[in-house]
Amino acid sequence: MSPTFGIAFGGGGARGLAHIHVIEALDELGIKPVAIAGSSIGAIMGAGMAAGMAGKDIHDYARSILGRRAEVASRMWRARPGTIAEAMQNGIRVSQFNVERILKAFLPEAIPETFAELKIPLKVTATDYFGHKLAVFDEGDLHSALAASAAIPAVFRPVMRDGRLLIDGGIYNPVPFDLIEHDADIIIGVDVVGAPEEADRKQPTSVDLMFGATQLMMQSIIANKLKQGQPHILVRPAVSKYRVLDFLKIDALMNDTADIKDELKRQVEKVVEARGAKGKRGKRVAG
């Protein structure tokens, strides 16, 4: 019997566009996961896959929007505050976009309103800010869970859900493979956190330092998690040269990370072959 697969898509902002290659590779291998987990951009990509979207469809949709500045500007305009009162809520916060409005303007129609409507079970992470812990959503309203998971501090406002103030899921669990480790035979983790790079030796701005420090923190969390347990396959696309909000660089980013498709296919083949060989040895011993 063929092994089942689970996949965990990690957080990383625009760097998470590389997840599309992973979804396309699995499609080409004929692999349909039985469980998906995601943090931040990984939750959004995971929701697309869980909704039944093919990697090619996600790829085409992302390019049709992010590849055209005018289209991005139009959708951002749609996501603006509906009233002056909303804009002034809790004081003027021009630096904090409403992530729920942004997602509503950008998500494909194929992603449903609730977890129950998904075709593959999905677990979405967020960080419970005042509860000081990880929050995991797998039922109820899907869009608010995705918004909470993607609420990058200082960029997006926190999301209120179930009486909790929620921020970016990548803060507590950047690659949530542990959430599905018992849900499938083979677990794949995709790490798109990246790390700060010396781009042209320029002095990093305060914003660069803030996002870079977050990357280092997330990498430390991932390293500690891997000491406790590991997914059967862990892939890390070459995304470090891209910043968290470099969505408009989709063409360059996708070109730079295209080789991850073949790498993933090789790793899947290797793990499946190893499982098959182990199974045959077991049968001989039993016989």
Can you characterise this structure?
This protein has helices at residues 19-29, 41-50, 55-66, 69-78, 84-88, 99-106, 142-149, 206-228, 250-256, 260-286, and strands at residues 5-9, 35-39, 122-128, 133-137, 159-161, 164-167, 186-190, 233-235. It is an alpha/beta fold. Strands 1, 2, 3, 4, 5, 6, 7 and 8 form an 8-stranded mixed β-sheet that branches. β5 (159-161) and β6 form a beta hairpin. α1 packs across α10 and α6 (99-106) crosses α7 (142-149). The two termini are 19 Å apart.
Strand content: 5-15%
User: What is the average per-residue confidence, as pLDDT, rounded to a whole number?
Assistant: 90
Q: How many individual helices?
A: 10
Instruction: Round the Cα radius of gyration to an integer and report it.
Output: 19 Å
Number of strands: 8
Order of helices and strands: EHEHHHHHEEHEEEHEHH
Weakly predicted, low-confidence segments:
83-95
Largest sheet: 8 strands, mixed
Specify the overall morphology: globular
Our measurement of the CA-to-CA distance between the termini, rounded to an integer number of angstroms, reads 19 Å
The helix content is 40-55%
Estimated structural class: alpha/beta
Provide a brief overview of the structure.
The protein has helices at about 20-30, 40-50, 55-65, 70-80, 85-90, 100-105, 140-150, 205-230, 250-255, 260-285, and strands spanning about 5-10, 35-40, 120-130, 135, 160, 165, 185-190, 235. With about 290 residues, it is α/β, with parallel strands linked by helices.
